[in-house]
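Input for the complex:
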Amino acid sequence: MLEVQNIDIYRGETQILWDVSFRINQKEIVAILGANGAGKSTLIASILGLLHPVSGKIIFRENDISKISSHAITRMGIACVPEGRHIFQDMTVLENLEIGAYSKRARPSLNKNIKWVFDLFPIMNERKNQLGGTLSGGEQQMLAIGRALMSKPDLLLLDELSLGLAPKITIDLLKTIETLRDENTTILLVEQNVEMALNHCDRSYILETGKISIEGTAQELMSNDHIRKAYMGI
Amino acid sequence: MNSLFFMYLTNGIVMGIIFALSALGVSLIVGIMNVINFAHGELYIFAGYISYILSVKLGISFYFAIPIAILTIFIIGILIEESLIKPTYGNDMYSLIITFILSIVLQNFALLVFGPFPNKPPNWISGATNMFGLFRYGNQRLVSCLAAIGIIIIVFLLIKKTWFGKTIRAVSQDRETASLMGIDTSKVNMLSFGLGCAIAGAAGVVLAPIFPVTPLAGVEISLIAFIILVIGGMGSLWGCIIGGLIIGIVQSFGAAYISSGYKDIFGFIILILVLFIRPSGLFGRKAL
Ligand SMILES: Nc1ncnc2c1ncn2[C@@H]1O[C@H](COP(=O)(O)OP(=O)(O)OP(=O)(O)O)[C@@H](O)[C@H]1O
Ligand SMILES: [Mg+2]
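Predicted:
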């Protein structure tokens, strides 16, 4: 579904990603794991068209999207739950969800998708007239996921789902993500919480200072000594 | 309380609403794009001039002259945004300087084309109304005030209820995330700059029958708009309404009970007081 081919990414003068390649197949949860500052969010920004690679390609369903602007990429069926959630604070929960369905492909099924999100996260229905900024951290994360789902994306990017959330809430959300995969949404999960992510993904890549160092299935990585030492403290 | 008090109050409220409308367009543009449009007052007077030419020189009824004038300013606004503002994105200082220069260019253009004398489209309505048996108040002012209220309500509905309004609010709150929702943020910039200018134009056509336009009349309009902007809080629409009312009422009472010679100073005094108490303005930032 998504194939990243040898991209080099700069922020200003500084190179952040070096020759990064990976692929995500349809109906897979792929996790990109790495420490603070490894370049995970930069990778997400590149897929979303917020940054453009100086070399390499990003192929989404046969199209090279590496030079397309972010609003056009979203309209092609990629949605994202950004790091730190980025809820529209002064808009209500309902308005946040509606704006998630802004793209033309999503608007006709707006009401159906709102119902779908409310079924996934009933608390959103209770809070629907509350301003986004007044929600708790966990609720904001649900809202960010719901808002992304409103566009009925084929590919969902999740940046640091666990950030600032209690482990139980994170695990519940990850279970929801697994349900979404089973319903045919493809998922890219970016995490520094390695152990938790490996428990809920199919395949994974390790990103170390801007380069992919290891890749494999979740099982393979969980039994990899280097990863157990460096990331799981075992 | 005598009837004079109520007359000053009425006048203050009417002027306040009119001021609020004159500031609404700049406020909208600041809130969405972080661009301060110094040419705001000049767009206002150009709308006044256009409605004057259409109705006085060409004899077109004001029902048509008004929408044509507003539409023209909307299109001019979009052209300004595409040609002058777009290249400055990311540098607020450049856009400030450019709109400042534009305002001077437009003033001189107006002077060349229309001459230094005041021009005034005909009143929509004549006569005066007896207010609650206390005093008589000019009908044109009342009607202009009602039109201003109508325009303000339309702008609020547009922003609170429509898809376009939602995209405007999303962009003003978090531009990057808005683009991740599929919103073309440069297009939103273009349209909202046009809308801001169109509101300036609407204020111009509504007020030109009361305050005839001169090439320099825009300066005072801009000045009051910026005072209101700072008092109400940059980019806050409610702040704009409240700020306008405060200035209108204080000016009216100040002119009546202290001295009409100091009329313009009252605004600055309030401005300084508000900045002392709440530097971010009464409604803070970003509450579109
Ligand atoms: N806007 C920016 N301008 C310049 N450098 C940046 C910018 N954002 C991030 N960087 C740098 O890019 C590198 C990678 O940052 P990135 O945010 O992609 O890391 P990350 O893996 O997402 O980290 P975290 O786990 O803390 O979210 C870091 O060295 C960071 O300092
Ligand atoms: Mg990050």
